[in-house]
UniProtKB/TrEMBL annotation:
InterPro entries: FixH. This is Nitrogen fixation protein FixH. Residues 73-93 are annotated as: Disordered. The chain crosses the membrane at residues 20-44. It holds the Pfam family FixH. It comes from the Bacteria.
Amino acid sequence: MNIVASDTAPRAAEPWWKFPLVWMVIAGPAIVVVAGFVTLWLAIRTPDPVVAEDYYRRGVEINKTLADKKLLPAQTGRNHAATPSDDVPLPKK
């Protein structure tokens, strides 16, 4: 029987960076870190808009101008289970 020496000799271990599965495991956290830095950059670059000092008064004024029930479907329809039957919003035509 003729045995080739390379068949019985143990192979030398390859370096870790030559295995594709290692790169798949590293890629997930690396992408998350990059996305975190992109989010931080966007948050610093675009500041939040300032809310008006009198936002509540402005909202009350808007509600007064929309006093007609047909213009307030969310307010009349949001609690439809507890709304009396005479106060049900009309369907759109």
